[in-house]
Amino acid sequence: MLFRIHPPRAAAAVLAAVAITSAFGGIACSKDSSDLKTVEAELVAPPGVPEPIRRGPAHVVVNLEAVEQQAEIAPGVQYTLWTFNGTNPGPMIRVREGDYVEVRLNNPATNQEVHNIDLHAVNGPGGGAEATHVGPGESRAFEFKAQAPGLYVYHCAAGIVADHISNGMYGAILVEPAAPLPRVDKEFYVGQSEYYTTGDRGDEGPQKLDTAKLLAETPTYVTFNGNTQSLTGEGTLQAETGDTVRIFWANGGPNLTSSFHAIGEIFDKVYEYGTFDRRNAIAHVQTVLVPPGGAAVVEFKTDVPGVYKLVDHAISRVSKGAVGLLEVKGKERPDIFREVTATPEPGTTAEPTTTATATAAATTAAATAEVLSGDIPVEMRDNSFAPKTMTVAAGSTVTFQLDNVGKAIHNMQIANSAGDYDAADAVKSDPELIRPGEKGELEWKVPAKAGTYKFRCEIHPVEMTGTLTVK
Fold it and tell me: CA 372 to CA 391: how far, in whole Å?
């Protein structure tokens, strides 16, 4: 049997069975799985990934719970999430081709909403949604046979569906091929999704779903793993030079197509749409399209140390939160990448210099050549700082006089010594958002210890950056 529904059970009874897997799993769901060993699926929250499967087919029990909870989705922004097992996206499920997978969904009595689960890896009505339609205080289960290897999205299909997905109820299930995937050094799980909040981007405090924005497909935030900061700071992904990296990328949507790109890397191999059919694996890919409700798997080898940005290359979405970091540590590889000093070739003429660019060049040269203190003028352009490298006196107090001469809104942030822009000792401009033609300032008590500090525009964090050297 390829698909079987278990009758509804009281929540307490199912939870008791979950606690003792053998009691629940000992009931054969079909003659096809009765002689298989029963195992409980390892469920791992993003960006973690369950261990690769090195076994034959089994009867796999997947225990999921609908969790409704308040959480931070951006600095200072609170939102009521609907999730599977308390994370956005839900935990990654890893099974094997040929497994019989029993999915159990519990909806605690303390919840307010009806939930269910539709797994795109399922051949059966609603992907399991009809079989798991549970109100608060109910639990239901069904079993399916994992027939087609690949990476698939799962999501709640209750309500208008889009609202449950946008509120965080989606995740990924990996059906490994019977012939295991090649071993790699690092595996990561990342989900992209959108929030449609009643407030504007940056409005702090509790926010609710704005259905009009949702239906108009105009998100306030576009995030990786449910938060604008989830893959930065302490959440930055880590690898070493020479590592082979595999990223399982799932797009919950509910509306936007993702253009997944790693700045400074070329994907050595891409499994489009999440399929592991070897005929569909393509090499040397720069950007991967992933539709809402779709997935992709990318693999690459890290050659050069540095910090690499993961983005949706519909690049304005970076300003809405669609950016993460992969830090690669190790020895430099000048045979692959190195910085050089550009010099004009004999007989060539330098590019004409306008008064404005000459002034900016002089300002930059002066700023990098001397140790600055007191008031420091800084222009914010579309999208760069002038100057973008400065040396300041250790232990002093400097005030950056910010002038937005561009046509877009900008600001300035200085990270702490660990490179964290959200830490308590990081600082940002006043006002926080400086509109075109307006001015602002940023006062910084320079640390007494020499070192290098980063600064950026929070709205344009990829292209609008700079460096402060403390001497």
Answer: 6
